Amino acid sequence: MHRFVSRALCLAALLMAGAAQAQVAVVVNPKSAAANMTAEQVANIFLGKSNALPSGAAAAPVDQPESAAIRETFYTKVTGKNSAQVKAAWSRLVFSGKATPPKEVGSSAEVKKFVAGNPDAIGYIEKSAVDGSVKVVLTVD
User: Which interval of the chain is the signal sequence (predicted)?
Assistant: First the structure.
């Protein structure tokens, strides 16, 4: 039994390490005028400090579920904040009426679908999930 538990824990650790190492692609609609964005520009949108894309168009950010490993990777690498810090920041903004948090959908596939159908959308998915329905404006390792 002890050997089984040890192997299960090792496997879980490897899977978590793989998820943490996933490359994240920040994506917009292919028709968007945004070509490339800096991590700071993306962070400002996802932290409620800006509500516009670099082109000046309104930004419609879409978020992954809190339970998704890619969400933690995205926020840690792009904003320098963990999930708890992001949640606290949004709680303050919502309470003060200054901003509305990004729309949350259930998966990378749903993010891609939302972005593909909305010219002002911006979201993040695993780089391996990128296809012609979205345009990459930032990649983070």
Answer: 1-22
